[in-house]
Amino acid sequence: MPARIGLFGGTFDPPHVGHLVTAVNVRHALQLDVVVLMVANVPWQKESSRRITPAEDRFALVQAAVADVPGLAAGRTEIDLGGPSYTVDTLAILADENPGAELFTIVGFDAAAGFTTWERYNDVAARSSLVVVDRPGVSATLPEQFQWHHVEVPHLDVSSTDLRSRFSDGRPLDYLITEPVLAVIRERGLYVGAQ
Ligand code: ATP
Ligand code: MG
């Protein structure tokens, strides 16, 4: 049986329970062998708007997040490739590394709504099945020319943006981010004075 691989890309600055709940539920619903949380090297659509935590730190956080979770993996293909991260290139590499595998590109509703701003998005749709999950507070429309597989996951109104602001003003992080991730954040002194 060829592998079924989910590609769940993100900045993961930091990874939170919204990411993890999405990944495990999509994996279950679509019977994927693995969902790879792929850490964007340079998230080009975010680059100019704020300071991004170094990619290696974000990768360490995602590794900590998935360490105890069967069927989830941390991906560093985009970091190793260097430069701006394009899903279309990552899919090509995954296809080369896993001959015959069926690939699934997993996105939250906000990311799906902006799909036609992605680099060579037609190739992304050609190389993979597009999977979308709802995201609370996001009301947008999906580009209709593509077939979207909608997977129902628990709606968690959690974002990395909110977590960074919690770090900066001292509000609780409990249950929004997992303990192993918090441990690496403390070890590496991340999000101190975060904006
Ligand atoms: P930021 O606030 O910095 O943009 P984020 O929480 O949106 O961070 P990203 O790394 O930008 O996290 O998102 C990676 C992927 O995860 C995107 O496809 C996004 O839509 C999805 N995602 C993030 N948070 C959730 C959530 N709470 N529920 C469902 N999908 C989510
Ligand atoms: Mg986001």
Detailed description of the structure:
This protein has one domain (4-188): Rossmann fold. It has helices at 17-29, 55-66, 77-81, 87-97, 109-113, 121-127, 160-169, 179-188; strands spanning 4-10, 34-39, 72-75, 102-108, 129-133, 148-151. It is built from 8 helices and 6 strands, in the order βαβαβααβααββαα. With 195 residues, the chain is of the alpha/beta class. The radius of gyration is 16 Å and the shape is globular. Helix 1 (17-29) links the parallel strand 1 (4-10) and strand 2. Helix 2 runs antiparallel to helix 8 and helix 4 packs parallel to helix 6 (121-127). It has a 6-stranded parallel sheet with strand order 3-2-1-4-5-6, with helices on both faces. The structure holds adenosine-5'-triphosphate and magnesium ion. Adenosine-5'-triphosphate is lined by residues 10-13, 18-19, 22, 107-108, 110-111, 133, 135, 156, 158-161. Adenosine-5'-triphosphate (ATP) binds at residues 10-13, 18-19, 22, 107-108, 110-111, 133, 135, 156, 158-161.
Q: Any idea how many domains? A: 1
User: At the third CATH level, what is the topology name?
Assistant: Rossmann fold
Name the ligand types. Answer: adenosine-5'-triphosphate, magnesium ion
| Separate helix tally | 8
Query: What's the CATH architecture?
Result: 3-Layer(aba) Sandwich
| Cα-based radius of gyration, to the nearest Å | 16 Å
Please count the beta strands (DSSP E, at least 2 residues each): 6
**SSE arrangement, N to C:** EHEHEHHEHHEEHH
The side-by-side strand order for the widest beta sheet comes to: 3-2-1-4-5-6
- Termini gap: 47 Å
Which structural category fits the helices and strands?
Answer: alpha/beta
The CATH class is Alpha Beta
Shape: globular
Helix content: 25-40%
Low-confidence stretches: none
Largest sheet geometry:
6 strands, parallel
Q: Output the CATH homologous superfamily.
A: HUPs
Strand percentage = 15-25%
Rounded mean pLDDT is 94
